[in-house]
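Appendix B, Record 12. Input sequence as logged:
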Amino acid sequence: MTGLILIGAVLMTVSCAMNPVTGRPDLMLVSKEDEIKLGQQTDAGVTGEYGLYTDQRLTGYVDEMGQRLGKLSHRPELDWHFKILDASVVNAFAAPGGYVYFTRGILATLNSEAELAGIMGHEIGHVTARHSAQQISKAKMAQFGLVGVTVGLSILGIPGLSSLAEFGVGVLFLKFSRDNEREADSLAVEYATKAGYDASQMADFFETLQRMDSKSDRSGLPSWFSTHPSPEDRELSIRAQSKQMQQKMGLKDAKIDREDYLRVIDGLIYGDDPRQGHVEGGFYYHPRMRLQFPVPAEWKVNDTRDAVQMVSKNKDAVILFSGAPGTTPSDAAQKYVSKAGARVLKSDEVHVNGLLARRVVSDVTGKDGTINVMSFFIQKEKEIFQFHGLSSQRLFPQYESLFDSTMNGFRELSDPKKINVQPNRIRTRFTKKRSSIENALRALGVPDHRLKDMVVLNGGTPGQNIPANTLLKVVE
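Logged structural output:
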């Protein structure tokens, strides 16, 4: 009993942290130092898993604006970091400790500096109000239970218990509450207005998102509304707060800066980059690695930086393709068997379109049962690539020949058209005369079947009149 009282006293002492935004104490199991450490850990995982968009001009532009808003926030002392992820999905994220990420997809969708300032202020707001730290604290409290003994022991330095590191990149996908979102919206209005921008433009962006069909991209990153639950009357509230904040600060002629922003994103890659791998005509092509292989009909493909995942229509079989550790196919096969604890049923040396390979059929037993796996380890020059076809023991015979034919279809890519493929890019063009947005886009070369998407991409509405000399986005 004395020990539990001591643990409770320690827990109460460390849990009362002052919220930088409200000035009120919060129940918090994450210190500022731990928050910064978690942000550093998350950043390493994010940049490694999703990759950064390497456009120095655009990266510098985003970082410069972010640093300005960060200094105007409730936590100007933080070492702020603003980065662009090489992903086509429309989203932005904040990690604890001052790390803010924008996908190139969201930058392509924004239509002004004021919109960017609003979204940036929103993510900064999640950091300044310590929303991620709050969510982590709640998750840890739920994990530790009502007694709180595990929390107490961890605080007292007993090793072997859970740590912040276990959250990793997953911290980006913690679900914020609608109250968190309302607070982040209010802080976005405050920070953007302090920087001289018309924060009501953020509401225009949210209305654009409502008209878009954006769920995720091949990186696996979700879209905005999957990670940011939308409060009721969000747009109306943002517009009202923006008007009030401008009056409070005496801000007249608030900046929108549409043309300046569109000029900066001219040339931005739009959509998935085929140079990093793409599916076309039933085949997967990777121009940079100069390889190709067939994709089973009606199978869904998810192409991440680390692996290509192919899932059957009934979701009862999977084929995984990636690089493999090892110096030879046999060496790579042995490493797989050892790491997976696989029981080898068959192993033989084969050749796949002139490339030396090792084929292994095995079963792997885990906590949910046993699965059968067909694996190919293929040597292409100095690199080893691996396929794994997985299914239940009952269904494996049904998929075995499909696994084998898919993996035997691996070959070197030699078609110059596939090797030299280029991504779509955002291009900005001025209109020549006043017309509807549809006719303006037609005059800029947009085909009819793309008009609806391009109207939304420009933040427009059907039938909207566009003056002459208006800068619009097109995709080339």
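The first helix runs from residue 2 to 15.
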